[in-house]
Amino acid sequence: MAQELSLILETPVEELVPKMLAWNNQQLLAQVEEKLTHYENVQYDDSTIDVAKKDRAQLNTFAKALNDERIRIGKIYNTPYDKFKSEVDGVVNRVKEVSEKIGTQIQAYELKKQEEKQQAVIEYYKEAIAEFSGFIPYEKVHQPKWLNVSTSMKSIKADIDNIVTNARAAVTAIEALKSEDEEILKAFYFRTLNLSEALMENERLKQERAKIAELKAKQEQEIQTVVEPKVEEKPTEVKNNIQIVKFQVEGTIEQLKALQHFLRENNIKFAAIKEEK
């Protein structure tokens, strides 16, 4: 049962506030200023350095004595309040101790409610995700705000329905592209749940395929410039000790390029042989 707790002073605090400390402030300050003026105007030299040390020591001693007296008076002056503060702290700490125990129970209750709510959300998600089960796991779309007490199940279901609707629209859009990479694009979408990025990926794949086709055509063209098949053991023509030999070569693109380089380096003329139809 809740009970009202309040602090009640037996004597009003206004009656307990002590008067301002009265002391010979102005008189002492005037005397100190007179002495300090004397010290400020003194010029010490090698013969009076010991006097300078003595004067400094006297000033420091006076300052320490004055400060020590302030501390002594302060302790006496503050003793009632320090005692009051200590007693209040004891009550406050005891209250906090019990409050924390109640807080532990509240946290346990809220955690339990969050777990129950999350289970309900997961169950609805399993029903709503339908054909995309296995492609869009719950962990991928979970939003921390769903577990807040202020977030209703109605709004959570609307969020989930929106995820499913967007997925269906995205799949339809990807299929409409008639892309050779349709399955790759679908897999990309399910990883990102971002249709715009999936469409950008489609363009990237198209450009990549075009570059590969261009490179392949270039390589085939280079192969055609390399010496090709049909070896004849005897020279078919001799001019000034120049022999013409027709032969067929089989090898990798790198090997054929190497052969082509060798022939050029040695000033050996060569040409591709067109096959007879």
Percent strand equals under 5%
Q: Helix content range of the residues, please? A: 55-70%
Average pLDDT, all residues = 84
Sequence of secondary-structure elements? HHHHHHHEEH
Description:
- The structure is a single chain.
- With 277 residues, the chain is an all-alpha fold.
- Helices cover 66% and strands 2% of the residues.
- The chain has 8 helices and 2 strands, in the order αααααααββα.
- The chain has a two-stranded antiparallel ribbon.
- It is elongated and about 130 Å long.
Key descriptive features of the protein:
single chain, 277 residues, 8 helices
Quick overview of this protein structure:
The protein is mainly alpha-helical and about 280 residues long. About 65% of the residues lie in helices and about 0% in strands.
Describe the secondary-structure layout:
Elements: H1 13-16, H2 25-40, H3 49-129, H4 138-141, H5 153-176, H6 182-192, H7 195-224, E1 237-239, E2 242-244, H8 253-265
Antiparallel strand pairs: 1-2
Helix pairs in contact: 3-5, 5-6, 6-7
